[in-house]
Write a structure and sequence with these properties.
The structure holds 2 protein chains of 2 kinds. Chain A is mostly helical. In chain A, 48% of the residues lie in helices and 8% in strands. Chain A has a 3-stranded antiparallel beta sheet with strand order 2-1-3. In chain A, α4 packs across α5. The termini of chain A are far apart. By secondary structure, chain B is of the alpha/beta class. Chain B has a single domain, classed as Rossmann fold (3-Layer(aba) Sandwich). Chain B contains 5 helices and 7 strands; from the N terminus they run βαβββαβαβαβα. Chain B has a 7-stranded mixed beta sheet, sandwiched between helices. The chains are: A mainly alpha, B alpha/beta. At the A-B interface, α1, α2, α3, β2 and α4 of A face β1, β2, β3, β4 and α5 of B.
């Protein structure tokens, strides 16, 4: 990689620089709740944001008035999934949100689930 | 505590989903399918042609492994990459939501795949017959991880058209793995690819995978 490539990478990278991401997650890379949070976990707010809340937490509570997946939260907030996962884990621990839809990972998915998906796709 | 200095999100300017893109409160379960293929093979096109929302992009930020985590002073010098992934959504019924993730097949992104494939129903390998070599790596990796997949050959005007049997031989695929032609720009064609995957998964759920 040439020096100019490295420089342009660094510039593109400004927004999500690791130091800032480290700060908003307060240095944590995860918790026990995090293990259960998937890209497609649906998050629903239990209450609105409170004054004085960390802005990222407040933004998630506002977004999740209707169920929204972790991937969608990440897209709307322009934050990496790994950061959103930590923030959602905080909110779960504080009982501010409900997490739905941890469809258990199975080696081979259940036939009834597959039939439901096929039925839905046929309507497209 | 004052977190102002940490703000990455300006809460007042966050644009959430449009009203018509919100899920009903009855949505209680989500499943995912991963679309894998090289750059420019049509992953986002396929996702977009069946998705009920305009495809969204999520990014993951990767710092290079091997950099000392305690070296705070060196943080700004860590080399880092952003890997983007486009995804879409299909509401299957009032309770169940299907998400489709398009992910690059290149080896350097494989470290992202653990979380992506965990709990996924299965995968679609989208193949560009002009660049079959990308697909070899992807298919080998999916086989290693026991992720069930089907192969879809996206139709490009200037791409050589392979008979399915020849493609099967070229990709060294076992007879039970479905291969289909598709036009990722067309909703019906993309839907058929997903249906092929679901029928295949159904056959695996009903009868054990041939060894």
């Amino acid at each position: 990689m040439s020096e100019s490539d490295q420089k342009s990478d660094a510039q593109e990278w400004d927004e999500g620089d690791p130091e800032r991401l480290y700060v908003i997650t307060r240095g944590r890379s995860g918790s026990t709740e995090k293990a259960a949070i998937d890209l497609v976990t649906l998050v629903v707010s239990r209450s609105g944001p409170m004054p004085g809340m960390q802005p990222e937490h407040a933004a998630i509570l506002r977004l999740c008035q209707s169920p929204l997946s972790v991937a969608e939260i990440s897209a709307y907030l322009h934050l990496p999934v790994s950061v959103v996962t930590v923030l959602v884990a905080d909110l779960l621990a504080g009982e501010r949100v409900e997490a739905r839809a941890l469809v258990p990972p199975a080696q081979l998915p259940d036939a009834a689930l597959i039939e439901a998906v096929m039925h839905g796709l046929q309507k497209l | 505590m004052d977190f102002k200095s940490s703000e990455l999100v300006d809460a007042d300017t966050v644009v959430g989903p449009r009203v018509e893109d919100t899920l009903p409160s009855s949505a209680t379960a989500a499943v995912k399918i991963v679309i894998v293929g090289g750059f420019g093979v049509g992953k986002t096109t396929l996702v977009g042609s069946v998705s009920e929302i305009r495809p969204l992009t999520t990014e993951e930020t990767m710092t290079q492994a091997g950099v000392g985590v305690d070296d705070v002073a060196g943080v700004e010098r860590k080399t880092a990459t952003t890997v983007a992934m486009d995804f879409g959504r299909i509401s299957i019924n009032d309770e169940l939501v299907l998400y489709l993730f398009g992910t690059p097949g290149q080896q350097r992104f494989w470290f992202l795949w653990n979380g992506l494939f965990r709990g996924a129903l299965g995968a679609v390998v989208l193949v560009d017959t002009r660049r079959l070599e990308v697909s070899f790596d992807v298919i080998g990796r999916l086989e290693e991880r026991d992720v069930p997949f089907v192969v879809a050959m996206n139709t490009f005007p200037d791409a050589p058209s392979y008979p399915i049997d020849e493609l099967r031989t070229a990709l060294d695929l076992p007879a039970h793995v479905p291969i289909v032609d598709c036009d990722a720009r067309k909703r019906a064609s993309s839907r058929d690819v997903l249906m092929t995957l679901m029928r295949y998964l159904h056959s695996l759920a009903v009868t054990p995978e041939p060894s």
